[in-house]
Amino acid sequence: MTKSISANAFPAHEHDHTVCIADALDSAEQHCVAHQLRFTPLRRQVLEIVWSRHAPIGAYEILDELRNESRAAAPPTVYRALEFLVDHGFVHKIESLNAFVGCDRPDSEHVGQFLICGSCHQVGELDDPEIAKLIAKKAKTVGFDVSHQTIEVRGVCSNCAGENHA
Amino acid sequence: MTKSISANAFPAHEHDHTVCIADALDSAEQHCVAHQLRFTPLRRQVLEIVWSRHAPIGAYEILDELRNESRAAAPPTVYRALEFLVDHGFVHKIESLNAFVGCDRPDSEHVGQFLICGSCHQVGELDDPEIAKLIAKKAKTVGFDVSHQTIEVRGVCSNCAGENHA
DNA sequence: ATCCGTAATGTAATATTATAACATAAAATG
DNA sequence: CATTTTATGTTATAATATTACATTACGGAT
């Protein structure tokens, strides 16, 4: 069975963040061991900060958190850690927000399709091959050969839609 | 017949820019008249600059052009004109580039799907309802109600793919 | 035509996001 | 343990975008 939505997509608002953060860090660590990547303290720390927010976080917010955790840091510190995390699929950049979210599926070569809730500001991640294929196919009809897709969708998640019943 | 790709998508590299720029300005002007929008000299000038590039152009590049054309200008001048142009569909923002491209179809309520050529840096615009519908449908399966889609695709356009024959 | 209210633009300052360049430190490799 | 590479520290600056407030131009009422 292929999951078409990430495990971290719009968890119930009350869910236990500590567990999913720990899972994500473990998963990243395992992936790094398996692929001979250096999961340094800084990279782990940045990934933990990203996950802790559980919503898109800006580079300078990460920087503030690092400093709160009494780590000497400047912008390049953060951007370099993010570059590593993005390159290896532990984090995605949301272009339309200039912000970053954690991804718990570093292994799959997925094209993230992001669902950005305008109410709770959390981001769910679809990884639907049908969407990717349709786009590639349509582009091909005009002779365009696709190498990468950026898909970011605004709207309202189910948790938030359900909360207006008052 | 519904066109699924914009007239401005990847014209031959030798095409006559002056004509498409003039067409776009005329089209924008007509739209503004019809909708009681003020197509001021500044807005026209910015739109013309955007179209002249015929590829994504940054706000500060527009600013430089304005100044070249001996118009007093500061960043807000540009960003406000762009806001108007984007709001009314004369220009789209390419989020992944922090840059802007002209659109020649202000009327249609289209969700632009942008094809960004990594070689010539031009941008084609698909406006394919199937893609939009599929995304909305897939999002719905996880309870997400879509209001806006940002779709930006990297790759190589047909003109550029054909140019490597040496 | 003149006044008035609104919308657009001018202007100065500053916020936010991101990178360049070079120095230092830590780790992997032979 | 010496060497090479990779990662991080540090300073400065580039690139993108907005806030706040002053001024001007426009559109509608009289």
Written account of the structure:
The structure is a homodimer of 166-residue chains. By secondary structure, chain A is of the alpha+beta class. Chain A has 2 domains: 15-106, Winged helix-like DNA-binding domain superfamily/Winged helix DNA-binding domain (Arc Repressor Mutant, subunit A), CATH 1.10.10.10; 108-166, Ferric-uptake regulator, C-terminal dimerisarion domain (Dna Ligase, domain 1). Helices cover 43% and strands 17% of the residues of chain A. Chain A has 6 helices and 5 strands; from the N terminus they run H-H-H-H-E-E-E-E-H-E-H. In chain A, the strands form 2 sheets. Chain A has a 3-stranded mixed beta sheet with strand order 4-3-5. Chain A starts with 16 loop residues before the first helix and ends in a 5-residue tail after the last helix. Chain A binds chain B through residues 4-5, 9-10, 95-96, 113, 115, 117-118, 124, 126, 128, 130-131, 134-135, 138-139, 141-158, 161, and chain B through 4-5, 9-10, 95-96, 113, 115, 117-118, 124, 126, 128, 130-131, 134-135, 138-139, 141-158, 161. Chain A binds a DNA duplex (30 and 30 nucleotides) through helix 4.
Distance between the termini of chain A: 38 Å
Domain count of chain A, please report it: 2
Uncertain residue segments of chain A: none
Strand order of the largest sheet of chain A: 4-3-5
The total of beta strands of chain A comes to 5
Strand content of chain A: 15-25%
CATH topology of the largest domain in chain A: Arc Repressor Mutant, subunit A
Question: Count the helices of chain A. How many?
Answer: 6
Major sheet size, sense and barrel closure of chain A: 3 strands, mixed
Q: What class, by secondary structure content of chain A?
A: alpha+beta
Helical residue percent band of chain A: 40-55%
Radius of gyration of chain A: 17 Å
Assembly classification:
homodimer
The average pLDDT of chain A is 90
CATH superfamily of the largest domain in chain A: Winged helix-like DNA-binding domain superfamily/Winged helix DNA-binding domain
Shape of chain A: globular
Output the CATH class name of the largest domain in chain A.
Mainly Alpha
The assigned CATH architecture of the largest domain in chain A is Orthogonal Bundle
Which pair of chains forms the biggest interface, and how many residues does each contribute?
A-B, 38 and 38 residues
SSE run of chain A: HHHHEEEEHEH
